[in-house]
Amino acid sequence: MKLVCISDTHSLHRRIPEIPAGDVLIHAGDCLGQGTQENIEDLNEWLGALPHRHKIVIAGNHDWAFQETPALALEALTNAVYLEDSGIEIEGIRFWGSPWTPTFMDGAFMLERGKPLYDKWTLIPDNTDVLITHGPPKNIGDEASMMFKCQNVGCVDLLHRIERLRLKAHIFGHIHEGYGEYTLGCTRLVNASTCTPRYVPTNPPIVLDI
Fold it and tell me: Which of 33, 85, 135, 188 is a plausible cystine mate for 101, CB 3.0–4.6 Å?
């Protein structure tokens, strides 16, 4: 199965130079710009024109419509499967998606570090093959430039959870500076942030064969 991974497009999806072919297109959150219903409608139209047989979307901290008006958001997103602490099995591969990130300033789907996030990660089934979260685990693709210095802002409880799983892949975004591929044991990890730190959507989609 060929996974095509993108994230953090911020309603700039039509400016992505090229989307490779594949079986499953995965968007790991921050798909919207202003976080509005109109943003979802435009995203949905764009998704509908792509050839991938399956499309999975999760929300991120900019995707307010999915948190504030979830029924309307899901009604508008007809060309992809939306996962929010939920999963789907495609051709025998089990996917799980979750939008939560540690609280930072004012964003959607944010929780305090510690028990609130720990409880969300315990929902991930033990038999998950591909995990999709918006935020990264601690120290993996999570180095952000903040206040003129770099900080690792990923979630340590997420790291501990994936260390106990036997994942084929973990796809995330959120920290644009962390774009790229990583490994943790036998697990392949992808920060699929499409936008650069300057919000230019030029980071190529990352393709995984699993």
Answer: 135
Q: Check: CB of residue 59 under 8 Å from CB of residue 108.
A: yes
Secondary structure of 175-206 in the HEC alphabet?
A: CHHHCEEEEECCEEEEECECCCCCCCCCCCCE
**pLDDT one-digit tens code per residue, 122-165:** 999 999 999 999 999 999 999 998 767 788 999 999 999 999 99
Beta strands in 99-137 (DSSP E): 101-102, 110-111, 130-133
Q: Are the C-beta atoms of residues 146 and 136 closer than 8 Å to each other?
A: no
Print burial letters for 95-122: b (CB count within 10 Å at least 16), e (below 16). Answer: bbbbbbbbeeeebbbbbeeeeebbebbe
- What pTM did the predictor assign? 0.97
HEC assignment per residue over 21-88: CCCEEEECCCCCCCCCHHHHHHHHHHHHCCCCCEEEECCCCCCHHHHHCHHHHHHHCCCCEECCCEEE
User: What is the dihedral angle through the alpha carbons of 73, 77, 102, 141, rounded to the nearest 10 degrees?
Assistant: -160
AA identity, residue 44? N
Residues in the chain: 210
Per-residue pLDDT averaged across 180-193, rounded? 97
